[in-house]
Amino acid sequence: MPATVITDLAAELTVPEDGTLSRVLYRDDRMRVVGFAFAAGQELTEHTSALPVVIQVVSGRLDLVLGDEETEATPGSWIHLPARLPHTVHATEPSVMLLTMLPAPYPSESGVPSAP
């Protein structure tokens, strides 16, 4: 399989004037990487993921609620969320982030990945 190279993530994910852009940047049978571009004031309301995820901030500033914990994420921030942790993302300024969905560590009896 050839390498996947994106030389400028911020240019790949243009921040809309209003709203949120999401785009799958990479997918295989082991992981998926989704890029998000948020206009200032946009948010992902509280939700969970069935799989563990990693958030990486490329540009901008995000306020995150991770379970009961609040944190601010800026370029270079790296955040790991275990499966099923309720979380919220709010862009306080135009922002770009990567969301990497990881495989769950333990498959269930049905063969579908599940969290420990």
UniProtKB/TrEMBL annotation:
Recorded hits in InterPro entries, A to Z, give: Cupin_2 (IPR013096), RmlC-like_jellyroll (IPR014710), RmlC_Cupin_sf (IPR011051)
Q: Which CDD domains match?
A: cupin_HP0902-like (cd02230)
The Cupin type-2 domain sits at 40-98
Name this polypeptide is given: Cupin domain-containing protein
To which species is this protein native? Streptomyces chromofuscus
